[in-house]
From TrEMBL:
Residues 4-150 form the N-acetyltransferase domain. InterPro entries: Acyl_CoA_acyltransferase, Bact_Acetyltransf, GNAT_dom. Pfam families: Acetyltransf_10. Transmembrane segments: none annotated. Keywords: Acyltransferase, Transferase. This is GNAT family N-acetyltransferase.
Length: 153
């Protein structure tokens, strides 16, 4: 049985997270242009709340938040780890972080094939973001997670 852990991303994770993002099968074909030359930098990881899911020494998932306005900027799960529950675990972790940061809701501009996943995780549709050529030539669903505050005890 593989054990997983989530930890705050550090500068040393930048290359492994970039490799995870670049290897995503979900961004091949018509969606490949959005990741062309894309890189998750050390500065990006230092600037945003960003977390990695590890299986032993491998990075198998990653997400990052933008604090203002509150938005899930990136969420990726390694192709080999799809269907294991890591994506759901990362969303739950992200919502906990958002609550800790005082966010009431978190916006997601979804990759079209991921929309159903976000809806299953509790996000609601809020609109559509129009294309922004030349890299993005398709509409992207806009969703929102309502952040539930933990009960005070």
């Amino acid at each position: 049985m593989t054990s997983y852990r989530i930890s705050r991303a550090s500068a040393s994770d930048a290359d492994r997270v970039t490799a995870l993002v670049q290897a995503s099968a979900a961004y091949q074909g018509e969606y490949a242009s959005i990741l062309e030359d894309y890189r998750v930098t050390e500065d990006y990881l230092a600037t945003h709340p960003a977390f990695v899911a590890h299986a032993q020494r491998d990075v198998v998932g990653f997400y990052s938040l933008i604090e203002y306005p509150a938005e899930l900027d990136l969420l990726f799960v390694a192709d080999s780890a799809q269907g294991t529950g890591i994506g759901a675990w990362l969303v739950e972790h992200m919502l906990g972080q958002a609550a800790d940061l005082g966010m009431a809701e978190v916006r997601v501009v979804s990759h079209p094939p991921a929309t159903g996943f976000y809806e299953r995780m509790g996000a609601r549709r809020a609109g559509v973001v129009p294309p922004s050529p030349p890299k993005i030539t398709w509409e992207r669903p806009e969703l929102v997670f309502d952040v539930k505050r933990p009960p005070r005890g």
